[in-house]
Write a structure and sequence with these properties.
It is built from 4 helices and 7 strands; from the N terminus they run βααββαβββαβ. By secondary structure, it is α+β, with helices and mostly antiparallel strands.
Length: about 140
């Protein structure tokens, strides 16, 4: 069973540890205590929480086959005469989109604007971090 400490869950979700603690305290996210008394979240419970949050009604009203939507803030817009590059910071993730300058102008995309990156891809590479060796505690 995979378990996450509050800080690890916060990093995965792109929120603060205090936000995760509030969700736990409010009963929205179940947590238990490990052998050291730290609150931990079961990976299956955390996945269910994220799935339920993702299934909540979103702001868009269009129907789409794309399932990957990352809401964020525009951090850079670079335009030339025909093409543009738009950078969006969505939580801890930087998303870069290349599009026509006309599309950027039509959407009025500017640094500081809220935007949603909608991603549909036939190729998505999934990686898993290598297991880290257990670290011993000093003096214990």
């Amino acid at each position: 069973m995979t378990v996450f400490r509050i800080g690890e869950a916060a990093e995965l979700l792109g929120v603060s540890a205090d936000t995760v603690r509030r969700w736990v305290d409010a009963g929205r996210l179940p947590a238990t205590r490990d052998a050291h008394g730290h609150r931990v979240l079961d990976g299956v419970d955390l996945a269910g929480f994220v799935r339920a949050a993702a299934a909540a009604p979103e702001e868009h009203t269009e129907l789409s086959s794309a399932r990957n939507r990352l809401r964020g803030i525009v951090t850079a817009v670079r335009k030339d005469t025909v093409m543009a590059q738009v950078d969006i910071q969505a939580g801890p993730f930087r998303v870069v989109s290349l599009m026509s300058r006309e599309a950027v102008d039509d959407l009025d995309l500017r640094v500081g604007s809220v935007a949603v990156a909608v991603i549909k891809s036939t190729t998505v590479v999934v990686e898993r971090p290598a297991p880290q060796p257990a670290r011993g505690r000093p003096g214990g």
